[in-house]
Amino acid sequence: MDMILILTILVVVFALAFDFINGFHDTANAIATSVSTRALKPRTAILMAAAMNFVGALTFTGVAKTITKDIVDPFLLENGSLVILAALVSAIIWNLVTWYFGIPSSSSHALIGSIAGAAIAAAGFGILNYSGFIKIIQALILSPVIALVGGFIVMTILRALLKNRNLFKANKRIRYMQIGTAAIQSFTHGTNDAQKAMGIITMALIAAELQTSDDIQLWVRIAAATSMGIGTSIGGYKIIKTVGGKIMKIRPIHGIAADLNSAAIIFGATLLHLPVSTTHVISSSIMGVGSAQRLKGVKWGVAQTIVLTWVITMPISAVVAAIVYKTLALFL
Question: Coil, helix or strand for 30?
């Protein structure tokens, strides 16, 4: 069998593995607040999230096309299949390491940093599509800032609306509403995160000259959506614990404010065809909500650890991907 075809098959397998890992790594964020407030039992929340992620993943393709062509041009990339395989191996390693330690790191940062690092190792800095790459970086940087401010605003509005109501009774009603907001958030997660693997597979198909456009084939969409859905059904309890309890003590009113805010931002990014880190957005929303409630109520030490992980993810992933590429190139 031709080596390029073998590499392309490996890319598809590793891309689906990345989506699978992304499912239990990142989807935990989408349901963390509803589980921590006991609006949903963990298993019920995970199964619901799996179904909604699957539906969301099949609905849009704009983000996938951005991943396909805006970091590097797959039509110009030599050894493209090997570059993409190295990027996937690097992103998977980082996701597994951060999952093991229960750190809500960004799969998006890991994947994008890995693609850039492997491509630079293969063809130098000139291979990057700087206009598209900078646009993606801007979205990744701005989205958590917007989420932080938005969480603060949404929580402030909710507090004003519920000012003269019995907070215990209000929280009881809101807990039921969280089922809906958790479902919406899981859907928006699927519309953005699952598309990243679709974009990677499409890059590999173009690099192997198996397709000539950036259209996302139906089998790619179904395979990526299914992989993420299965991964979600397994769940990531360590990350649920970090996001749902270690940042701040979450009440139902906090959960619904964070869910609505982060779902709106993620879905807005999807409509703009921009990949964002769902981890960043959700964690930042919780921090914003906590700040509106009581500034000292946010455990800023934990938040600082999360932010530090966000900062180092992309450069570390890029370096790891470059090393993996050079290692694979020696043998392949």
Answer: helix
